[in-house]
């Protein structure tokens, strides 16, 4: 048995070992920087608007920025994350239009579709379970009345019914767990993302914007189009191998 397992384990170690992704460290290169819980915060003003931007984290294929906007002027203004984008500071022509921020409404719509499909899958799983278990019970009753039935066959049928019940119920449970997860995701994004909002004087809004990562944008600008003007926040990014210890002040030092 061990001799048979060794080749299989060898294949696993060759093809089955996942490598950790590099850590993307994003740092502001602005002159006026404040700090909040270990994060850099840059605040700028334009046309009666005060805007604070903080790089929060990377999430899958996105960079996440925390943006807060306060309207100090007498007139109202409508804020939309679809008017925000990221561009390299040095424009080589390849990325002239930059990368636009994710539209929260598109994301929420996609989640609504997944939730709807999952609800249908829940109903189908429950109906399938009912049909299969009913058929198994009917067949068992018919076999019990047969002269060919034996205690051994009865035990085998009982085990088969238990396996069928476990399998179908597990599928139902999975669908419900997935539904709960999707609902939680939707609630999180609906309340945490910066969504299109009209601000009157003295009102503010704060939320996350998601912009696709691009390591070739270095350094880069986060551009907020706040008609009739725009604000630009300058950043640099650094890719840090996950296997290497890192300290900007003490290179090579060890951290747990």
Quick tags:
Immunoglobulin-like; 5-stranded antiparallel β-sheet; alpha+beta; elongated; 2 domains; 256 residues
Explain how this protein is built.
The strands form 3 sheets. The chain has a 5-stranded antiparallel β-sheet, with no helix packed on it. The protein is built from 3 helices and 12 strands, in the order αββββββββααββββ. It is 38% helix and 31% strand. The chain folds into 2 domains: 131 residues, Immunoglobulin-like; 84 residues. By secondary structure, it is of the alpha+beta class. It is elongated and about 90 Å long.
How would you briefly describe this protein structure?
With 256 residues, the chain is an alpha+beta fold. The protein has helices spanning 2-15, 104-144, 151-192, and strands at residues 23-28, 34-36, 39-46, 49-59, 62-71, 77-79, 84-88, 99-100, 197-199, 204-212, 220-226, 229-240. Helix 2 runs antiparallel to helix 3 (151-192).
- Judging by the overall fold, what is the CATH architecture of the largest domain? Sandwich
Poorly predicted runs of 5 or more residues: none
What's the CATH first level of the largest domain?
Answer: Mainly Beta
Largest sheet, in brief, is: 5 strands, antiparallel
Distance between the terminal alpha carbons, to the nearest Å? Answer: 39 Å
Give the SSE string: HEEEEEEEEHHEEEE
Order of strands across the widest beta sheet? 1-12-11-7-8
Number of domains: 2
* Percentage of β-strand residues: 25-35%
**CATH topology assignment of the largest domain:** Immunoglobulin-like
Decide which structural class fits the backbone.
Answer: alpha+beta
So what's the oligomer here?
Answer: single chain
- Which descriptor suits the 3D outline? elongated
The total of helices stands at: 3
Cα gyration radius (Å):
28 Å
Number of strands: 12
Q: Average pLDDT across residues?
A: 81
């Amino acid at each position: 048995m061990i001799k048979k397992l060794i080749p299989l384990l060898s294949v696993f170690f060759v093809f089955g070992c996942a490598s950790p992704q590099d850590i993307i460290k994003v740092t502001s290169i602005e002159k006026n920087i404040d700090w909040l819980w270990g994060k850099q915060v840059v605040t700028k003003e334009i046309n009666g608007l005060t805007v604070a931007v903080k790089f929060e984290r990377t999430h899958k294929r996105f960079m996440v920025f925390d943006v807060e906007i306060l309207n100090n002027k007498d007139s109202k203004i409508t804020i939309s994350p679809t008017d925000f984008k990221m561009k390299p500071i040095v424009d080589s022509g390849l990325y002239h239009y930059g990368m636009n921020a994710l539209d929260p409404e598109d994301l929420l719509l996609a989640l609504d579709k997944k939730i709807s499909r999952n609800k249908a899958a829940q109903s189908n799983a429950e109906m399938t379970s009912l049909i299969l278990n009913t058929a198994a019970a009917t067949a068992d009753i018919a076999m019990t009345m047969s002269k060919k039935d034996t205690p051994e066959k009865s035990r085998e049928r009982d085990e088969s019914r238990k396996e069928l019940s476990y399998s179908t119920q597990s599928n139902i449970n999975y669908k419900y767990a997935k539904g709960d997860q999707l609902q939680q995701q939707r609630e999180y994004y609906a309340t945490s993302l910066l969504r299109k909002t009209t601000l009157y004087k003295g009102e503010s809004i704060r939320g996350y914007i998601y912009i696709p990562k691009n390591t070739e944008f270095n350094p880069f600008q986060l551009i907020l189009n706040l008609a009739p003007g725009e604000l630009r926040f300058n950043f640099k990014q650094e890719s840090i191998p996950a296997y290497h210890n890192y300290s900007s002040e003490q290179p090579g030092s060890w951290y747990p």
